Amino acid sequence: MKSIIGCFILLKFLENIFAQDVDLGEKLEDVSLARTFTPGVCGGGQSSICASCTSLSLCISASIVVDVPCNSTTYPYCIPGEVEARCSTEPTSGCAPASDEIVAITCSSVGVLPDPSNCNIYHVCRTVQGISDVYQCPTGTRFNLRVRQCRARRVTPCVTVTCGATSGFVYYGTSSQYYAYCLVANGVTSRYIFKCPYRASFNMSAKSCIYRCTGVGNFVNTNDPTTFYQCYVANGRLVAALRSCPVGTNTFNQTLQYCV
């Protein structure tokens, strides 16, 4: 009996310690938006233009263009100009931001999303396709996906998205619910984070989230409450179909089982 009581006290003690580690972090007001590079086009009187963030093109004529990569060691970035482009040590404003720059994301779902490149911040999304609110974890903590808040670094590994040389979907750490897409274009690698809804997991073969029905009925899509999953039996097994709420309604009500 004493050993049981002792274990209970120890568990409560550890629970209190971990609870003290949890921190919501600070909402940042001055953040940048994700940047997108737009290649130049020959034909406007320029002698050269930036073909990508790391290469320029010599405009021999509107139809004859010679691509020239910037030196990756000395002057790796292309800077556009009114008449000619040049290679530089600093990226242009349309290219990837500095690694320490805080960048908001366009929300792919509502809820909390990790940052694909910085484990010291996370994003709170209130509307689909809206701009995220960015929160920074206090010193000594980083974003913990399990509790969706900041926790001490000693119990929270730093997880970021690792991309390859080509575009494609990748896993986010060991999570089956969170995943990312790497877009490699114009010398820039952009990382986009996604979250599967509740009861769904990411399937790399299908390149999408697979929803798991627990029974026949309608179930809210936790990523976007203006939609819901309709679960029904087909060919002897449960299948799910994503449905949108009708025009004139706002959200799916799980209790009422219809959109209101």
From TrEMBL:
One of its GO terms (molecular function) is chitin binding. GO terms for cellular component: extracellular region. Residues 1-19 form the signal peptide. InterPro entries: Chitin-bd_dom (IPR002557), Chitin-bd_dom_sf (IPR036508). Residues 104-160 form the Chitin-binding type-2 domain. Keywords: Signal. This is AAEL012647-PA.
